[in-house]
Amino acid sequence: MSHPARSLPFALLLALSPTLATASDARPDYYPTLADQQTRLAIVGYRLTTANARWCDDVTPQPGWILGDLRQFKPGDRAAASKIYQAGDGPFIAAVVPGSPADLAGLTRGTRIAAIEGEAVAPADSGPTIRIDTAIVKLYTIDPTASWTVTDNTGRLYRMPPAPGCASAFRVELGGAQAAANGILVRITLKLARSIADDEELAAVVAHELAHNILRHRDRLGTDRSASRLRQTEFEADRLAVWLMTDAGYDPAAAIRFWNRHERPLVRAASHPPRSERIAAIESEIAAMQAARSDGAATRPPLIDAPPPLE
Question: Is 0.85 topped by the overall pTM?
């Protein structure tokens, strides 16, 4: 288990910003629901990343938060969002996981983050998520086994206990692809999150996207994003998600329940396998995992050590 090189964050920031601009077309009454779904995603993401840290090559501190910024919303929506989050200008805590480092340190919804480890997280750039992204990539420079600090906009210092986890952050979007991963961020839409009442099924969706990041699919695909190679990454993510869910205490069969219930595909494209094939692959992987761990040992997920070439 290691953590990413300190030279990575600047490249990661460039990868984040162009694809993550968010604009709200929501009515003001959406914001309480958005905050609730952010908390659900934060809990699921924290549980999956920390429980599976031993399998991940890239490990960062997992704060147990989801960050927000009023710039994510259209100017006319910002007052309504501010009332829910009790936040002003700057990156703020949108959701906190109970028992997480953020919670133990005393951070709460609406706390504005001015600095991490004494370094400012509010660049001059006016992008809607640039300040959040700066905070995300800052975590890549911190030893995940050490404590670290957050400073709020009043100058108060919060000491964060260590909680190593697979290197991924999480975000609820108000539009765009229903579920996606870009290498260091897992994103699901508010619409999709609201449609999944069962937290175990939500974990299945999040584990699948997290698996894309753990398996470095963005890097492994490179510029060759042919349909066959993309389909292979989807099957790999489905397979690894079985192990990630199990080790985080979720029922991997929830992925089967999700696909049986969710008849419409999340992405209508030849690059994504049909539902029946995905269910069959998940069932097969559950059986393979149970056989590999029949003696009680925590066998490593095979795809972690030897992912096949993408063809």
Answer: yes
